[in-house]
């Protein structure tokens, strides 16, 4: 399949995942671009499951981005702090998701926003289906506690 | 069944990821247990509020930039190929005009001609090549 059509078909879906993970539009746009450039540069275009493949690349891109940010965190501390302030999350649930650890955040995003089944989530993350189940339960539990605490 | 062990099942229950046996187990339990029934309700609320999060769309500018990326790359490559082949053609055409002194010196000159002038003393050394006189060295004052 032509990469342009792949992009047209899936960019929305992938953007939702990335946005869910970083909760910032400009950051998500940059990461969407990085994701698709990686895909375009990749030699192997013989992909059977594009949705899963793109999510995996997007996930790596998000994690790389966090790792880089962490490395230069001390330098950009001030800049980041002001940047964080600009992000206004309207709903309590968004604030709750922001507080989740990446591991719990990604299962909840893949389940609730990307509507993946447990097996599909397991495939994207490279973990057992049982782990998906327990992480989702923990994520919901933490969100529930957060929402009850913020009332 | 204990409430703690049913908790994980509740989460999978709302995702419709349970076997029939477990579905019955959960339904049986929450009927009797108010606490777990509340957990189910709040998990369902969490699900629906996540679904109601407004996710912005990426801007047109960004989408255009991404979709243009492969074309830009191909265009750049094509342009590079065109200029490379032009250079090769041009190179073959004009190479004889730019023969280095070294190359010329390597050819054994047939004859030398030394020209001297009194007013502006200088020396030119020529040799004959294919009927032409070629200057091979020059020393002396300025013109």
Keywords:
heterodimer, A: 151 residues, mainly alpha, 8 helices, 81% helix, 0% strand, B: 143 residues, alpha+beta, 5 helices
Outline the secondary-structure elements:
The complex is a heterodimer of chains A (151) and B (143).
Chain A (H helix, E strand, L loop, with lengths): L2 H20 L2 H17 L8 H22 L1 H14 L5 H8 L2 H12 L4 H8 L3 H22 L1
Helix pairs in contact in A: 1-2, 1-3, 1-6, 2-3, 3-7, 5-8, 6-8, 7-8
Chain B lengths: L2 H12 L5 H13 L1 H18 L8 H35 L6 H6 L5 E5 L5 E8 L2 E9 L3
Antiparallel strand pairs in B: 1-2, 2-3
Helix pairs in contact in B: 1-2, 1-3, 2-3
Short description:
The complex is a heterodimer of chains A (151) and B (143). Chain A has helices at residues 3-22, 25-41, 50-71, 73-86, 92-99, 102-113, 118-125, 129-150.
Structure in words:
The complex is a heterodimer of chains A (about 150) and B (about 140). Chain A contains eight helices and no strands. In chain A, helix 5 packs across helix 8 and helix 6 crosses helix 8. The termini of chain A are far apart. With about 140 residues, chain B is α+β, with helices and mostly antiparallel strands. In chain B, about 60% of the residues lie in helices and about 15% in strands. Chain B contains five helices and three strands; from the N terminus they run αααααβββ. Chain B has a three-stranded antiparallel beta sheet with strand order 1-2-3. In chain B, helix 1 crosses helix 2. The model of chain B has no long low-confidence stretch (mean pLDDT about 75). Chains A and B meet through helix 1, helix 2, helix 5, helix 6 and helix 8 of A and helix 1, helix 3 and helix 4 of B.
């Amino acid at each position: 399949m032509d990469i342009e059509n792949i992009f047209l078909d899936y960019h929305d879906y992938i953007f939702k995942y990335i946005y869910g993970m970083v909760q910032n539009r400009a950051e998500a746009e940059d990461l969407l671009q990085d994701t698709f450039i990686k895909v375009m540069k990749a030699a192997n275009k013989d992909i059977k499951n594009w949705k899963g493949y793109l999510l995996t690349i997007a996930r790596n891109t998000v994690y790389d981005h966090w790792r880089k940010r962490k490395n230069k965190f001390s330098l950009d501390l001030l800049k980041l702090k002001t940047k964080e302030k600009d992000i206004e999350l309207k709903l309590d649930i968004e604030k709750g998701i922001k507080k989740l650890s990446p591991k719990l955040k990604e299962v909840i995003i893949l389940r609730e926003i990307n509507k993946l089944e447990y097996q599909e989530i397991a495939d994207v993350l490279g973990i057992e289906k049982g782990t998906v189940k327990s992480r989702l339960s923990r994520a919901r539990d933490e969100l529930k506690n957060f929402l009850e605490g913020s009332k | 069944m204990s409430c703690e062990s049913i908790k994980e099942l509740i989460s999978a229950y709302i995702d419709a990821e349970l076997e029939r046996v477990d579905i019955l187990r959960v339904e049986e339990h929450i009927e009797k247990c108010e606490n777990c029934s509340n957990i189910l309700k709040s998990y369902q609320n969490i699900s629906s509020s996540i679904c109601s999060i407004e996710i912005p769309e990426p801007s047109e500018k960004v989408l255009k930039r991404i979709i243009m990326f492969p074309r830009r790359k191909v265009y750049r490559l094509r342009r590079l190929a065109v200029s490379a082949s032009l250079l090769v053609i041009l190179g073959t055409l004009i190479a004889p005009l730019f023969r280095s002194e070294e190359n010329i010196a390597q050819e054994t000159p047939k004859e030398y001609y030394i020209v001297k002038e009194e007013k502006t003393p200088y020396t030119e050394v020529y040799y004959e090549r294919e009927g032409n006189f070629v200057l091979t060295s020059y020393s002396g004052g300025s013109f």
